[in-house]
Write a structure and sequence with these properties.
The chain is an alpha/beta fold. Helix content is about 35%, strand content about 15%.
Length: about 475
């Protein structure tokens, strides 16, 4: 059978015609590249998981700075005055002690410090915090916080993640998941000098949320704040070479991700891209050399004993100013005074009092305090009864925290403990309630901020939590 051939051929197209007809395509390619740079994702083209997202309703705050006092400051020695402790010092506690205690305690122990009124509001703050007391009119002190775990590990997990028993996403991860970040060259959630004890990385982990939302540690508690650095890649030649190397690695990672479907590889791709972008942005944010002498003095930088925590607080302001959604700084691990309360609580307060007051003042002067929620506190409080002579044991049944800025009622006190400060008694605020309230200030409904995992919808507040409207302006 004879072969047949097709005699029709496509017309010849000149190079000029090809360029003319495809010119729009080149423009679209360039536009796609620009959009990818403006809103980069881990795969190099779509919308970033960290892109800013609209809140559920109009927010009062845009970001959170958490000043974490690791170890558990004593509420009856800081922000919750108890005159009856002084009156009945050395006597037996007249009430019923908790059924489950971390350790046994003895008789009532009065506070070694006097409480005085601060500002026009007259909020009573102890002599441990004279500088913060001057800014009492900025504070919303909650004296009725209570939680569920008397051990540091479980208490830290509940404070950070809402659960004291299971691995869950941290609050910073939930916030970033719900709102994204305002700066695509920086993480949405940064923790400065965190501790690796008492839950460690779980306290800033994204848990079952996508890894894009996990916290990024800058330094650790074993380092001085002045030592933490991120390498600056200001040399364009070095940056270009690094980009070529990274593109090769990312191509192999993407190929492996397609073959295996492993979500951890997607997370690795995203983390590599963010780390590359951070090299140009983070060193600028962490460079304090451009700050004025007055600002450094305000935070107690280059002074002892305030230099270390002062630097952390100033970094928190700079990261917040640069668009990071959730910043935590930790004073670790110093507030666990089972003995020598007078000596060590005084030492701890000297390290943080001036820097905290400096941060609040600086935020206010820059117009940032109105939409920055500052949160101060530890994982639990202390007993009003003595331990080890001059000490206090763990007490999750009553402790104080305070909020400032971000739409809170400034110059107010909310809630109360019993006459001796052992139990939250009036307008009690559970940790779930506090989390729900802070999410509300950010414009997030804690019941709607959910993520489906293992067959059910999870949230930061689990199945509990009520917004404390009494602390919202």
């Amino acid at each position: 059978m004879p072969r047949t051939f097709c005699n029709s051929f496509a017309p010849v197209v000149s190079r000029r015609d090809l360029l003319r007809t495809s010119a729009n395509g080149f423009g679209l390619l360039a536009l796609g590249s620009l959009l990818a740079r403006a809103n980069p994702d881990r795969k190099g083209g779509g919308v970033s998981p960290l892109a800013p997202k609209p809140p559920h309703f109009e927010p009062k705050a845009k970001r959170i700075i958490f000043l974490f006092m690791h170890g558990g400051p004593s509420q009856v020695d800081t922000f919750d005055p108890k005159p009856l402790l002084k009156r009945f010092d050395g006597q037996e506690y007249p009430g019923q002690k908790p059924r489950v205690q971390f350790a046994s305690t003895g008789k009532l122990l009065k506070s070694p410090w006097e409480f005085k009124r601060g500002g026009k509001s007259g909020i009573q703050v102890s002599d441990l915090f004279p500088e913060v007391r001057k800014l009492a009119d900025e504070l919303c002190v909650i004296r009725s916080i209570h939680a569920d775990n008397s051990a540091h590990g479980g208490a830290l997990l509940q404070l950070h993640t809402g659960s004291d028993t299971f691995v869950r996403p941290s609050m910073g991860s939930w916030v970033t998941y719900g709102l994204g970040t305002e700066n695509q060259n920086l993480p949405g959630f940064i923790t400065v000098c965190p501790t690796y004890g008492h839950g460690g990385v779980q306290n800033w982990s994204s848990g079952f949320l996508p890894a894009d939302f996990q916290g990024t540690p800058i330094g650790n508690s074993g380092m001085k704040a002045k030592e933490i650095k991120i390498a600056d890649t200001a040399n364009p030649a070095a940056t270009d070479l690094q980009r070529l190397q990274l593109d090769l690695v990312q191509a192999m990672n993407r190929d492996a991700a397609k073959r295996t479907g492993d979500p951890a590889l997607d997370a690795r791709i995203g983390s590599f891209e963010l780390a590359f972008r951070m090299q140009t942005e983070a060193p600028k944010v962490m460079d304090l050399s451009g700050e004025t002498k007055d600002t450094l003095r305000l935070y107690g930088i280059d002074e002892e004993p305030t230099d270390n925590f002062g630097r952390q607080c100033l970094l928190a302001r700079r990261f917040a100013e640069a668009g990071v959604r959730f910043v935590q700084v930790s004073h670790s691990y110093k507030w666990d005074q089972h003995g020598e309360l007078r000596k060590d609580h005084a030492k701890n307060a000297l390290e943080v009092d001036k820097p905290i007051a400096g941060l609040l003042t600086d935020l206010r002067q820059r117009g940032l305090l109105k939409d920055t929620l500052v949160w101060w506190g530890g994982e639990f409080g202390r007993t009003p009864t003595a331990q080890g002579g001059d000490g206090r044991d763990h007490n999750p049944h009553a402790f104080s925290m305070w909020l400032a800025g971000g739409g809170t009622k400034a110059g107010t006190v909310y809630g109360a403990t019993d006459d001796f400060g052992y139990y939250a008694a009036e307008n009690k605020v559970h940790m779930h309630d506090l989390h729900a309230t802070m999410l509300h200030l950010l414009g997030l409904d804690h019941e709607k901020l959910t993520y489906r995992h293992a067959g059910r919808d999870f949230r930061l507040t689990d199945v509990s939590g009520e917004v404390v409207t009494g602390v919202i302006a």
